[in-house]
Specification:
ten-stranded antiparallel β-sheet; alpha+beta; single chain
Length: 190
């Protein structure tokens, strides 16, 4: 019984002593650049069935919101990871040069063109929700916080990769909209 009170007090003080992630986002300090990256705690993952090549095969698009703080200069990005479970012998991996992204949300079309390369600090692995897959193609897009808020609140949302030969949309597979909304609230407040 006497051990419980100190243990409860120690556990209550733990969040004040550590840098635990806030709901909806977490921060990463890049020691090489000195920049801080705010990342949505959960990505949006979209999938399209590829029953044309195999049962249970899918192409995926993972979208991750990130805000880069470069000495007080804030820039918001949407990171895209394009990957597939389709056997490479049946379908070629995603083209690294085909990065245009089209998001259809609530009847509104959002067209995004990729940056030439990922900004410094936005190329880390698991912390930025990079899928654990061999053929992942990554792109980064500049985006406004207001657009992220709109996407987070959209009920109907699909994604297209317009440069790919297959025109079938990617539909929500793992829904990170709530995390995106919380991220956008925090990013917009900075």
């Amino acid at each position: 019984m006497q051990l419980r009170i100190p243990l409860i007090l120690a556990l209550a003080a733990l969040p004040a002593c550590t840098s635990l992630p806030r709901a909806g986002s977490h921060e990463i300090f890049d020691e090489q650049s000195g920049n801080t990256v705010l990342v949505a705690a959960m990505p949006l993952v979209f999938a399209r069935e590829r029953t044309d090549v195999a049962a249970h095969a899918r192409d995926y698009v993972t979208l991750v919101a990130a805000e880069l703080d470069e000495s007080g200069k804030y820039s918001d990005y949407l990171l895209l990871y394009r990957w597939s479970t389709v056997d490479r012998r049946m379908s070629a991996p995603p083209d690294p040069n085909a990065g245009n992204l089209r998001i259809l949300a609530e009847g509104r079309t959002i067209e995004l063109a990729p940056l030439e390369r990922l900004p410094i600090g936005l190329s880390r692995g698991r912390e930025l929700h990079v899928p654990d897959h061999v053929d992942v193609v990554a792109h980064a897009y500049r985006i406004e916080v207001a657009t992220l808020r709109f996407i987070a609140k959209a009920r109907d949302i699909v994604v297209f990769m317009p440069e790919e030969p297959l025109a079938t949309p990617f539909k929500i597979w793992e829904d990170g909209r709530r995390s995106l909304e919380q991220f956008a609230q925090r990013a917009g407040a900075l």
